[in-house]
Amino acid sequence: LDGENTDSKAFPTSINFKEEQDYRTEHKGYTIYNALCSLYNVDMKKLFPAITSARVTKSTYEKELMWYTAYVSSRAHVEVMRFIKPYQMEYELESKFLFEVYRNGGCRHVAYTCICGTGDNSAVLHYGHAGAPNKRQLQPTDMALLDMGGEYHGYASDITCSYPVSGKFTDKQKAIYTGVFNAQVAVYKMMREGVTYLDCHIAAEKQILKQLIRIGIIIGGNVDDEEFLNKLSKNRIGANFMPHGLGHFIGCDTHDVGGYLPGTATRSPEPGLKNLRTARVLQANMVLTVEPGCYFIPCLIKNLSEKYSEFINMEKLLEYKDFGGVRLEDVVCVNTNNQPPINFTTCPRLIEEVEDVMSGGVWPPAIDNAPYLYRRWGCMLKDGVGMKDVPIAVNNDAKPPF
Fold first, then answer.
1. Would you give the end-to-end CA distance of the chain in angstroms?
2. Handedness of CA 128, 133, 136, 138 (dihedral sign)
3. Of 16, 200, 262, 295, whose CA is between 20 and 30 Å from 117?
4. Closest to 326 in 3D by CA, of 185, 117, 113
5. Is the pTM of this model over 0.85?
6. CA-to-CA distance for 203 and 185, rounded, in angstroms?
7. What sections of 4-108 are H helices per DSSP?
């Protein structure tokens, strides 16, 4: 294979057919292989885009496998929610997740290094690596941002939950969490075939900006002033609070291939948008993550104070300088026939759901009070082969927050 992964910028290690042929000839045998290499002029550039394109949409069997992996990972996240206590170490949360996905789901491996950021570590986007190995002690006032996903039969899950270590949201924690939750809801309202993922990102960012206006961090306009919101977007104010993209393809890799194939939308050079891992037009059976976030990162707070002071109440912003961040991430499949998306992630998302589970409440719930999240409730079949839908009563009076 020969081609660039537009997400990682990496190239696959290619075989030198001449060297390989010489090696096999020298070591006797492989005569068919040698003959084929001699007869054909091998073009290694054609296979890469074909395989990459094939991985962008998922078959029925792939979707069921990814549903299972998300189901196991969601259950493990719930067990970590119940387990977390002040003064534990971050790595204890990681070890609990690893135990649960293996014990209850057969996921011997996880899809990536677990991110267990608490306090200001929750503003570090890829925290948890060897240089910062989930080693902080949890404090009662912390928000925890836990980004962890199991892997099963080579298919990844990628789920993030954010919640207070204490089990109860403070007013500040509620305010930031609500903005990120609203961002997810905005995406699910529009996530249909024919919509671009770039537009989904901008819609999510707008909800976070609106919440920051309500809090009083952003000044100069109100949440109903579209002209002001467009001005904020044009100046890329949102990129200082959500510097990463809305999400990415997921499948055989956590950050799967196909984001910017030839003939599809090109990567934007704008702050924040340039980190979006795909801007493609959505197609049925694409599986992506939806992971809006809001963070208070020291270098970006400095950038706001130096370049965008007309939009920022610095006194109010500095009240959140040690807050860290909030991210919510689901694994979602684009549906067919203009139907709502299928959300494979079944974690608690409403504030009341999170607080109830953390205080010992039952999960899954008896009633789905957030049907607009399109969570696909399910469980394994009795013989352990495959998944089945589990009907849960729906609160038909539950309305999206906007």
1. 47
2. positive
3. 200
4. 117
5. yes
6. 10
7. 17-26, 31-39, 44-56, 60-83, 90-105
